[in-house]
Structures are given as C-alpha cells and as structure tokens.
Amino acid sequence: MAGYDAIILGAGAAGLMCASVAGQRGKSVLLIDHADQPGKKILISGGGRCNFTNIHTAPDRYLSANPHFAKSALGRYAPQDFIDLVDRYGIAWHEKTLGQLFCDGSAKQIVAMLVEECAKGGVEIACGASIGGVEHRDGMFHVACGARTAAAPALVIATGGPSIPKMGATGFAYELARKFRLKVVEPRPALVPLTLGPGEALFHALAGVSAEVMAVCGKVRFREAALFTHRGLSGPAILQVSSYWRNGETIGIDFQPDRAPGWLREAKRAMPRATLSKILAEGLSDRLAIALADRLGIVGELANLTDVKLEAAERRIADWRFTPSGSEGFAKAEVTVGGISTADLSSQTMEARKVPGLYAIGEAVDVTGWLGGYNFQWAWASGWAAAQAL
Ligand code: FDA
C-alpha cells in the first residue's frame, strides 16, 4: 500500500490547485480522478477560452448559507495571485466584460499550466481511476482506487458538484461527506436556463431573440443580456438570477432598463403617429417589440392612447413578470448551489471540524459564485487555503 502526505479526490480546478501548491510545499500528494484526463470542465469553460477569474471578486458575489465563510480564502488568494501565475506562463489574456478575464488562446493552456505546476511539486496524478471506497482508521484515510490502495493522514474532497454529469460530474462529494457525518445543504442547479410553461407560448416563438435587460429575482438584480429559447429563458442575466430562483417564484424583467419614468408619455408627445412596437423597436429587436406590444394589447398610434394606459404599459415593460415552470436541471447547469455545509468546515483551512485531516474544497462546498469567473476563483482560493494546511 502506497503512503502519501495527502490524497486529493478530483483533478478539477480546485484539486489541481490544491495538489500543486501542497506538492510545492514539499508534501507527497496523490491526485485521483475517474475521468481520462484532468481539468475537463476547465477545458470546456468560457466557450473553450476559460473565464479563469474576475477582477471584481468579493464575498458578496457568492451564495452560501454562511455568506461570511468565503471571505478568508478569497482574501488570501486573490484574482491577482492567479493572474501572476498565468503571466508567469506567458498565457495571453484579456478582459471581456464586467471584470471577466479570458485566455486569448485556449482553456487548454490553463490545464497545461496547472498540470505543469503539479509536476513541479512532484504530484502523482492518477486519471481514469474509479474510487472503490474510502475508509478512515488509525488516523489514516485509506482509498481503494482500481487495483491499488493508497493511504494518507489527509484527504481532500475536490470532486465538485453534480452539474453536467456527461462531463464526469457526480454527487460523490456529498456521499463521502455524509459518510463522515458532515451536513450537506440541499444541492440545486444554478447558472441554469429557466423553462416557461405553455401559457408563455408567445415568448417561445421568440427563440433566438436576445435583449439587454435588468433581470430581478427577490432582492438581486442583474443588468446583462437575456435570451429567449425554445424552452424558456437563458442568457447571462437569466443564468445569474437562476441561482437565486426557487420553484414557484416569479422573476421580473425590465426590457427598457435605460428609460426614465414617463418615457412613453414623452414618446407620445414627440412621435404621436408612432405605434408602441415601433418605439420599443428602437432598443429591442422587431420580433420582441411586436410580441410585447401584442401582449399588452396596444396596437394603435400613441396619440390615441391615454396617458394612464401608457403609464400602465410602462410599468409592465419595466417589470414583466415570468413564472418559470422549472429549470433545465443539472444536465445544463454550470454550477451547483448548496453542497457540503460550511458550518462543518474551517473557513481558514477547509478542514472538517469533526474529522481532523478531512478537507473539502471547490464546488463540492456550499459556496457558489456568480457567472463570470467567480467560481474558478473560489476553486483556486479554497484549494490554495487547504494546501497551506496539509
Ligand atoms: P470540477 O468539476 O472542476 O472537478 C471535479 C473533478 O472531480 C472532475 O475532474 C471529475 O471528473 C472528478 N470526479 C467527480 N466525481 C468523481 C468520482 N466519483 N471519482 C473520481 N473523480 C470524480 N466557472 C468559471 O469561473 N468560469 C467559467 O468560464 C466557467 N465556465 C463553465 C462552463 C461550463 C460548461 C460548466 C459546466 C462550468 C463552468 N464554470 C465556469 C464552473 C466551473 O467549471 C466550476 O465551478 C469548477 O470547475 C469547480 O471546480 P472543482 O474543482 O470544484 O470541480
């Protein structure tokens, strides 16, 4: 049986970071993954260019039952630390929008960099290895993996969440957590398209149309693009609110987020012969403008409409209510909200309070970032924090 200082389960973003840092700190590390190669989600991320961090990273851009939990790790390993690493490897990058940093070239460069960092730390990577079982006895974790068993005084759960099972994602982290009596906050698909029921047939017909909107769910609001799909709503603004949305709740969409109150009355004075759909088409696609005007039942010239009717239309356009019938689920979700409860982990080291030597990092933990590089930053930061303690 092979002995190590630490065994890390899951060679994704968090596992690769944790393994490379621990290895370079002189620890002997075994990194195990059932996939045939490490970092598969990194490879498909950001449309193949990997949105590897966000320069506006701050704890309030993460969802968790304990909003304070992520502060320590995010504070100690900042976006600039990862940018420095990327720069050391000469990987060219650019800011796309809203602080989101992407590779100019390919996400493959990020995986190659992390694998190289692991090699520098002498990390042994075992891919294509399914984990048979994990036992804890005499202060050691014993992991059966294929034909071999490995043992270490420290075990890191870095197997991510169940989003996109066809990429090798599983709920294994939760099974293992429960085995060690750690609580799991109910996992839900997040950053996921929302579906609309048959009552919204008019909007299904708009599949492919997008608009710059303000999407609102409860107290959160996101000013980004929304996209109509055959099944419902998608696009960055919708993915963002989906992480906060619960079954049965409505979401609001402001289709004219830049207009000042009273703009339709103004339009009536300035262009009395125009129709509502024509005015809306100044900022929206023709198809969407017509659909909104149809839904509002406003077809004639503005001059023939009362100010009261125009004000009512303005209010609907600024807060169009949708009640999604559901989401497209884990099959289409970029991440998972919920996971291993932060109440059972140290925010400094990610170590389980009740099980010394057991750690959980990355998406497996109940910390979920906004769209835009925040989730990788959490993976790097939590992996780095655990590596300091191994
Ligand atoms: P991750 O999922 O990366 O790694 C877990 C590893 O564990 C995998 O390699 C898996 O094979 C392995 N594993 C799982 N179960 C196992 C088992 N039973 N036995 C052995 N191994 C097992 N985020 C971001 O910040 N910017 C972006 O651009 C994107 N883009 C993006 C696109 C798409 C399509 C998706 C699905 C997701 C994103 N994300 C993202 C989210 C990001 O990919 C995610 O938050 C991180 O990969 C989480 O890192 P982890 O290391 O925690 O899990």
Task: List its traits.
390 residues, Elongation Factor Tu (Ef-tu), domain 3, five-stranded parallel beta sheet, 13 helices, binds dihydroflavine-adenine dinucleotide
In round numbers, the mean pLDDT is: 96
Number of strands: 23
Q: Give the uncertain stretches in residue-range form.
A: none
Radius of gyration: 24 Å
The percent range for helix content is: 25-40%
- CATH homologous superfamily grouping of the largest domain: FAD/NAD(P)-binding domain
Q: Based on the coordinates given, report the CATH architecture of the largest domain.
A: 3-Layer(bba) Sandwich
Bound molecules: dihydroflavine-adenine dinucleotide
Biggest β-sheet: count, sense, barrel? 7 strands, antiparallel
Q: What structural category arises from helix and sheet content?
A: alpha+beta
- How many domain regions? 2
Spatial order of strands in the largest sheet: 19-18-15-16-17-14-20
Distance between the termini: 21 Å
- What's the overall geometry? elongated
What CATH calls the topology of the largest domain is FAD/NAD(P)-binding domain
Tally of helical runs: 13
